[in-house]
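Saturday, quiet lab. Running sequence design on the structure tokens for the scaffold JK sent over.
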């Protein structure tokens, strides 16, 4: 059994167990969010450079140089020395300046924080020293004064009810990041397909804003899907946003029609619609955001339709403990 030397204390680690799980089992309070290598809440430091290098996906160059690693991803096979980093690493304090319900499920938060980011990236929000979750940035760093997040209220959840109901304007909170690479990265003439379900709209909106700010003039197809009408939010704002950009085609797709017409809304299964409407995606830049099952299925479908893997950017909203 490999040993973990945690700040000098020797602890056992079971075969196949991650450093995070082993430390938690021994009662060590190591924060975690996604447990899937995404939110970076669980970063630790090690002296073993080679071990660290295998578990540093998404960390900054400075963090990599300092041997930070994601403890939820590291299953040691030999003894490893680890310690907690300075808890301020990559974190800033922010303040809630505005909260608005966009539908009966989704809240828009606007935060005042000094953070350099690209629209479509995500940040991790800390409720306390051990509880954190990631949220995507819908705002544009040069167009919007505040950071904008769209949070779906999950009843009984550890963080979203706090963000949606309890946090008050003026309250301070800790933000970590930014992280992620689902950002506008294609030349201005390329056709783009942006597809989202649920609050996957937040990063897709960020990417769209950035494309338009950068003068993208190739066609942009924006698809927003939902199982039912209640799954949509921001429809009016999106319609207004795209009105002045003739290169953008916006389509809302609802799986179960409930008789509520809205401009741009049709009854369709988003997968089938894409198979038929976008049967040839060669040359496209593709951006897919939302629930992991949606992102995985659409990515496969886009690849089968001819999009290069390197042209497909995704943001899968893994829930706590879920793996991709
Ligand atoms: C990179 C990334 C970006 C993300 N961006 C966003 C974003 O922009 N907006 C956003 O709202 N969320 C986003 N998420 C999801 C977010 O991080 C949380 O997982 C979510 O808010 C639930 O957290 P919670 O603490 O309220 O619930 P938890 O305490 O984590 O979960 C409570 C229960 O609800 C279940 N659950 C979790 N999520 C859902 C869901 N969506 N639908 C139904 N059941 C669920 C869990 O499996 C669990 O059983 C993102 C996740 C990742 C990894
Ligand atoms: S990256 Fe390890 S818990 Fe999220």
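Result came back. Writing it out in full:
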């Amino acid at each position: 059994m490999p040993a973990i030397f945690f700040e000098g204390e020797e602890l056992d680690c079971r075969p196949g167990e991650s450093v995070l799980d082993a430390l938690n089992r021994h009662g060590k309070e190591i924060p975690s969010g996604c447990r899937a290598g995404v939110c970076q809440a669980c970063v630790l430091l090690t002296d073993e450079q080679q071990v660290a290098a295998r578990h540093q996906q998404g960390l900054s160059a400075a963090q990599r140089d300092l041997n930070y690693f994601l403890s939820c991803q590291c299953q040691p096979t030999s003894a490893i020395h680890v310690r907690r980093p300075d808890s301020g690493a990559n974190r800033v304090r922010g303040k809630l300046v505005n909260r608005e319900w966009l539908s009966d499920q989704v809240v828009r938060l606007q935060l005042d924080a000094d953070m350099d980011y690209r629209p479509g990236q995500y940040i991790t929000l800390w409720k306390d020293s051990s509880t954190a979750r990631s949220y995507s940035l819908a705002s544009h760093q040069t167009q919007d004064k505040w950071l904008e997040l769209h949070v779906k209220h999950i009843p009984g959840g550890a963080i979203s009810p706090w963000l949606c109901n309890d946090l008050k304007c003026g309250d301070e909170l800790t933000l970590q990041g930014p992280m992620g690479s689902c950002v506008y990265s294609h030349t201005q003439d390329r056709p783009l397909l942006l597809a989202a379900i649920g609050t996957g709209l937040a990063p897709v909106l960020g990417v769209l804003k950035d494309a338009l700010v950068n003068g993208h003039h190739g066609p942009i197809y924006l698809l927003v899907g939902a199982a039912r009408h209640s799954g949509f939010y921001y429809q009016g704002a999106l319609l207004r946003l795209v009105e002045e950009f003739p290169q953008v085609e916006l389509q809302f797709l609802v799986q179960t029609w409930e008789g509520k017409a809205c401009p741009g809304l049709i009854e369709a299964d988003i997968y089938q619609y894409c198979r038929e409407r976008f049967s040839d995606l060669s040359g496209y830049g593709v951006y897919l955001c939302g629930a992991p099952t949606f992102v995985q299925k659409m990515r496969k479908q886009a690849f089968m339709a001819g999009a290069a893997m390197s042209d497909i950017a995704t943001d899968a909203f893994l829930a706590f403990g879920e793996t991709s």
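Notes for JK: Residues 67 and 237 are 44 Å apart (CA to CA). Residues 32-35, 37-42, 70, 72 surround FE2/S2 (inorganic) cluster (ligand 2) (CB under 6 Å). Ask whether to fix the surface positions before the next round.
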